[in-house]
Design brief:
heterotrimer, A alpha+beta, B mainly alpha, C alpha+beta, B: mainly alpha, 13 helices, about 0% strand, globular, C: alpha+beta, five-stranded mixed beta sheet, 15 strands
Amino acid sequence: MRIGSMYKDIVKSFFSPPVTENYPLEKPKTAERFRGRLHFDPTKCSGCNLCSKDCPANALEIIILDRAAKRFVARYNIDRCAYCGQCIQSCRFKCITMPGDDWELAALTTEKFTAYYGKDDDVASLMDKLTNPAPVPLPEG
Amino acid sequence: MNIISSLISLMFFPAGISLILSGMLYEWADRKLVARFQNRIGPRWFQPLADTIKLLSKEEIKPHGVNNLLFYGLPIVALSGALTAALYTPVIGLTPTYSFQGDLIVALYLLSLLTMCTGLAGWNGASRFSIIGATRSLTQLFAYEAPFLLALLGPAMAAGTWMIKDVSTYAESHWMFISQPVGFVVALIGLMGKLELPPFDAPEAETEIVAGALTEYSGRGLALFHIGKSVELVVAISLVTAFYLGGIGNPLVFLLKTLIILLFMSTLQSMLTRLRIDQTVGIWWRFGALLALLQILVIVLLKGWLS
Amino acid sequence: MTTETSLKRATEILAPFSKGNANPETNRLDVDIEASDLPAATSALMRNQWGYLSAITPTDLGKEMNKLEVIYHFCEGAAITSLRIHLPREDQPDIPSISDQIPVASFFERELGEMLGVHVVGTPDSSRLFLPDDWPDRVYPLREDFSVEQAAPVVPRATLPEIGRVGNKFTVPIGPQHPALKEPGHFEFSVDGEIITGARMRLGYVHRGIEKATEKRNWIQNLYLLERICGICSHTHTSAYAMGVEKLAQVEVPRRAQAIREIIAGLERIHSHLLWLGVAAHEAGFDTLFMYSWRDRETVMDLLETLTGNRVNYSIIVLGGVKHDIAAEHSRSIHTALDYLEERIRYYLHIVTTDASFLQRTRGIGTMTLEEARHFGALGPTARASGLERDVRIDAPYGAYHYFPVSLITGENGDLEARFEVRMKELLVTCFTIRTLVDNLPPGELAVRFPRKIPAGETISRVEAPRGEAFYYIKSGGGESPLRIKIRTPSLCNWTSVLNKAVGHQLADVPMLIAGMDPCFSCNDRMITVRRKNDLQTFSWSQIREYGIRKYAAVRELK
């Protein structure tokens, strides 16, 4: 039984710098396997949609613009994603990666949390379709 | 002239505003030291000031069914007690502003006034936690008050006077922490009990009774109690330093001595676990009181033998 | 005693009551009994000291079979005996209580009553456990015909049940909001001065409805749902689930994957126990130990990030194996981290056994004898500190524990100090096990192909979470989603011991007692969906004051 068993630690800490990381002045280095924001490569995608079926959070959706011409756009909800990495496992063609350095995702508005990935003209045509929906044909007569 | 100088000394220097500011500095030093001992960064120098300003600007919520007079009046009485006690003690190493025979007892009583107001405020708060906190606060008061008083009485008996100023003058030539070591230890540990610092912080045990006696206070009332506690910190440390570590003398040296005592208290704070209230009382009434009485006995015998 | 002899003994003991036996798996015995025979069957098992009650599974078998099923699971070593009782599918059928023989059953019976709508005759406490006060009567979430719309909130009852009615004593509420609790839970202690004279508790504040939610997701999605039951036992939940599903699909996981699963489980144990050490020290008022143990926890979390990709909720398990490998550079960093951690763990063991002020708060407090631990059904390090030898990794080894076993750590005194000691010593054993595994990783693949549809059947899997035994009952109907998953987490079994031991101690000991059993409230509350369409009850400021005044007026009358 002794009083003050932690004195060694206390004295040592008094003479050494604190361990607190000075974020945001010093950014920590994340591990290589760390799961950050999802990145999607549309060139390899086949439109099987296994990734969105297996997503536990319904965060990913592959929108098929033209299956034969291989035009796919992925709609990804950054806020819904649980960063579990199951989509990476489910995709047989390795279209999806979650690089470990893209993790500072806070934003002030929620619009930034829906991301569209694809070839530029594919995304542009999807955006066009979403903002200007095709006119519904009037009923006959 | 007299009135104006009294007012200035009461409101600005050395009591009043400057005392409050130095209380905040001491509180900051204590928190920073504890943080460094725990390998953390700790708050910046203006943190206690910012805390006080924030508290003063927040809404004060009065619980339903408490006594209005007590609720609003107790923080004021507590703070004034602590500030008035400063008039008789050599804070910041200067001669006390006012002195009279017996002001040692008055100063100590005014410091206990703070604890008693806390206890009364807790009873008045009428929530489960504040009642238990008030009970613990007053129990602890009964426990450490006697040994602490006796420990401060030792130097007074050696100096043969009840006036703080005279005791400090006597202490300048007689370094009493060497001649009365037991009393010094009891005074230091009693200081931690008085200020409700860990390991004697059962009255405000955050993980058991939320915030103890002050649970129901917010805004201005809490700010005044908080300031009162930091003022008490300064006053009590100054008293112990003046008695045991060589009286007044050079203000800078005095400040340094108070900081050494603060360092010692912060170290003890980081090293020990919070004691249960029955263990606190047990330690004080078994060891504290006995040791202090022993010390007094030794002084009496020595004085009788020397004269 | 081997599993076969245990099961044979159980068959003999239960022969007088059995309506039909079955052996669905090599280590399981299913016995159909009548509801009225339940107390006699239970006392037969207890008299012959056959195992302990591990869980009670309520299931609604559906409209075609028109029956409700309640299964009582008893475990001894690796053998599991399940007493299956069928009840008519009406409102509140009767079933006798066994709480007088097994105190921990009262928690399970409360759950049974409110979730399936079964009337348990003779249970000492039939108040709600998980569901909130304003849940409508006669709406049972586990029934097949339950829909979310039925759970519209009724007018909330303004007073908390039984406040201050425990005689003339003072009642101190700890929770749901309290600095001592890291997660919400409600305890009511009636105190006389500082001595506690009675204790009650309420759970369900982080109730998220996970068991019912698993029925709507496919097998792969459920991996991640179940992982998020808890932050620090996440790997054990996934392990248990994956083990069960792999048993149903009859897929053998490669040895390398099993070893990697065990390594991550060991690292999670280190993570969890260091976190617990800090929290318990904070409850005692020893903030320095809190800060230092959490600083060292960062080492293990960074290591887990390097190995698995996340500091919490590692997601390294897939059905059929693991996702990532442990390569040479990883094993080097594991060894370096473990060197540092072992030294620190030894230091903490030294502190919790020798620091005088800390021992004042832990030695001789909350002492639970071996008999009491067995009677209260305690699990995990809380039970082992009293000398009870219960550890699923040793009684019923699973995964890589067949080839890389761990040693059993028990304490003697059963007080808080013993619990601290047992956990720290467990960590030293875990470090040794991890090092052995990393140095001797069996070669092989990381994962095998896994079917998307799992064949029909039921299975039970048990793993040793840092807090005790986690029990999973998984039932598949042959489709892409499970039919029923029942999860019984260890913290639920340990509450009985805390509540019983609290009486007679001081109020200041209560946070330490609660922390001593390492409660995981998130693990407890996972029963049935609470997602209601209009569940936002917005109070205006004056309304909250009104509510509070009415509540405290009831207290004031007591004074």
